[in-house]
Amino acid sequence: MNPRTGLEFICKVCMNLDFDLLPRKDPPCILDEYMITTQFSKLKVSAETGECLACGIICAGLEELRDRWDDGEEAGTESEYLVDDTVLGINVRRGHGLRITLGNVGSEQIVEFYTLSEGENASISAFGNGRAVANEMGLSISLDLASQWIKKCDEEHKFCKKSGELRLPTRVVDVGVDPESDTVYLKETAETDRDPYMSLSHCWGLEQIIMTTTSTLQERKEGIKLSELSKTFRHAVKITRGLGIRYLWIDSLCIIQDDKKDWEIESAKMADVYMNSYLNIAATHSSSGKGGCFAERWSLDSLNQVELNVGEDILIEPDEDEDVDYKIYVRNALHVAHDHFTRTMDYTNTMEHASPLLSRAWVFQERLLSVRTLHFHAEELIWECGSGISCECSRLEDYQWGDPDGLLDHRESEQLKMIYTSIYSSSATEIQIFDTWLELVREYCSLKLTKQIDRLTALSGLASRIATSLSREYLAGLWSGDLPRALCWLRESGYQNKHPSFRDVDAYAPSWSWASVWNDREDVPSINYDLVKVRGFVTDTRCQVQDFHCSRSRTNPFGLCDDTWLKIRAPLIKATFRMEEVGTATSAVEWARKQNISQHMRKTVIRNIVQYEEDSFQFSPDCLDANLKVTDIAHGDSVYCVLLGHSKLTHNEYMAQWPSQYLTQADRAKSGEASSQTAAAYALVLVKVDQGYRRVGFLAHRGGLGWWEGADIHDTKIV
Predict the structure, then answer these.
(1) What are the angstrom distances between the C-alpha of 464 and each of 272, 278, 530?
(2) Judging by beta carbons within 10 Å of its beta carbon (0-12, 13-18, 19+), is residue 532 exposed, middle or buried?
(3) N or C of the chain: less Cβ packing under 10 Å?
(4) pLDDT for the residue 97
């Protein structure tokens, strides 16, 4: 029934935004979402007739936003988003604000319509509830929301509950009970001390922050003035006091920074520190101690990446002569924080720009190990716990997964905390835990690390926690039970030789570990397991891991290792390394076109080849110099290829899983090749060294196992 006329009426443009009439989103989403696609011109005509209240509200809101865009108050001249032929994607989700995408994917603007309470949207239920997000985050707002989320987590989240009070870390900052006190104290705890405490995740930044050293330890225990603390530390103290918690753990103050032994001992306890914390405070938007937790908020234009103001929502109300009552707000949709927390890391500059903390490798395990974290994001406040995510604008309230036992059906989720939490399901199998570990490694290897020597140590807390679910040895970032599959990692994106990558001669990890290689890029992962993830892995019947050795620190057995080697009994062949210089980038494209190579490889200038007898095949080298040439070996050198196994799927079987519209001409051309009907052989490419062999690359031979038919079986020691 039309609320204006009282007559039965179904709008052909928006279907009255009636859930019983709306088409479900295609493909179906686990969230209860509906999608309508139309043009702005059609919406305007419907609104101008006065027949459809929903079209009128949407049209009024969009035109109000367009006026703001045209005034240049925010992202400049954006009226291009709203012309007559602009495509509108109207996304409706039960109980949430209505979102509209203006334009096409990749060149769109997103806006949101919402009400503040149930009573304000009685006319049209599709304009669901949202929360206003203030322009500036302050203590009172953060404490109010945090208290609500903590209460819900305590009462409803079985997985997040702790069994009683756990012992305090070795040292904590005592913030006291007086909210007006200008002094805090470093406290050294006893084994019997049992009290709740908070923890802090923060970026140190380039400027010196306050630390505890051997010479300042006693001074810190006697008292630290708040004025001596960074802005981030002062805000963390206020939040801790505001939530009624007395103790706060801050790494730079609670670990003696110039005492190597203390640092090793305390870094080994990192998993317990964050797991047992009452709440982890994350200064997610701040790149240094100067940024703090409380700040003016901003979002990003989804196309131009221009900063937009937050907290300037526009109110849409009926005219005085209309016999309806509603209060609906419209705003540029808050989307940056949602993208960062509902998907695995997207390797774009938005992560570094809006949430620099999430780009740091050390923070990766802090985020996952903490049972619950309060993120002070540039855009809004985000709650992330072991059972779900929530946000200040309320859009993420549906991202609640509850008990880990319900997660195994959603293992394809891109939500990082969900992926990690799934391993604690009572029905999680060993291979599912290994799969999760490979996914975590990929994400971790996309993050920034100041000292490469910390590559394993910065993940050691996470490894120690996962070890409680496995009865397997941890070998420099790999699990013994996942060998030889876990050896099948590739640098960057395999054959795309676009960026230099390095391996330190002193080797913080053995050559067969992903931890031995890194690149200096911050927008792409330096390591991936894409091949075995998408095409599967089957161990060759002739391949056996015979033995391994890893000298670990007693203090932190999941950190740095020494004298580490692996012995494999498997088919081994001797081949030759060759570089084929295709030429300039232009000729490389022409060569790729003739070879039916897909678009993502058409920038290749140098092909790195393993030649065996009369046959040759391209492989993925581990290390490239600044000129993108292989560093470990020279043209014409002998290399050795040890067979590990083969793919579960042939190229054709893999491509059959993709919708036809995603297949390129090159993909279709390959389908007729004999190699596309054969499982790919997986092998390590090695060179001889004094201690045995060293890995220099990975070979996925689509021609199958032919090279290794009748090959001699060798005991191969890889260092």
Answers:
(1) 10, 20, 25
(2) buried
(3) N
(4) 86
The answer to whether 569 and 713 have CB atoms below 8 angstroms apart is yes
Q: Label the pairing between strands 478-479 and 518-519.
A: unpaired
Q: Which among 130, 150, 184 is the end of a domain?
A: 130
Q: What is the CB neighbour count within 10 angstroms for residue 76? A: 12
Asked, for residue 390, whether it belongs to a domain, the answer is no
What end-to-end distance do the CA atoms of the chain give, in Å? 75
Whole-prediction pTM value? Answer: 0.85
Alpha-carbon span 177 to 245, nearest angstrom: 8
From the list 51, 45, 86, the residue with the least C-alpha distance to 65 is: 86
Cα distance between residue 218 and residue 496, in whole Å: 54
Answer with the one of 85, 103, 130 that is the final residue of a domain. 130
b/e sequence 463-499, b meaning 16+ C-beta within 10 Å:
bbbbbeebebebbbbbbbebbbbbbbbbbbbbbebeb
Kindly provide the b/e burial profile for residues 151-171, where b requires at least 16 CB atoms within 10 angstroms of the residue's own CB: ebbeeebebbeeeeebebbbb
Residue 94 lies in a domain: yes
Please tell me whether the peptide bond between 169 and the residue prior to it is cis, using omega within 30 degrees of 0: no
For position 706, what pLDDT does the model report?
Answer: 94
d(CA 680, CA 643): 11
pLDDT for 597: 44
659 domain-assigned: yes
Please name which of 245, 246, 237 lies closest in space to residue 210, comparing C-alpha atoms: 237
Give pLDDT tens digits for 253-305: 999 999 999 998 998 898 999 999 999 999 999 999 999 999 988 887 655 45
CA separation for the pair 288, 533 (Å, rounded): 37
d(CA 62, CA 60): 6
Domain that residue 497 falls in:
470-719
Instruction: Count how many domains the chain has.
Output: 2
Q: Where are the beta strands (DSSP E) in 270-356?
A: 279-282, 298-300, 307-309, 314-316, 328-332
Domain contains 298: no
CA 538, CA 140: separation in Å to the nearest integer? 56
Neighbour-count burial for 205-216, b at 16+ CB within 10 Å, e otherwise: beeebebbeeeb
Low-confidence spans in the chain with pLDDT less than 70? 1-7, 24-32, 70-81, 104-107, 118-123, 163-164, 301-307, 321-323, 343-351, 398, 400-414, 492-499, 505-507, 520-525, 582-605, 655, 657-676
Residues recorded for the chain: 719
Determine the pLDDT at residue 118: 55
Q: If DSSP states are collapsed to H, E and C, what string results for 11-24?
A: CCCCHHHCCCCCCE
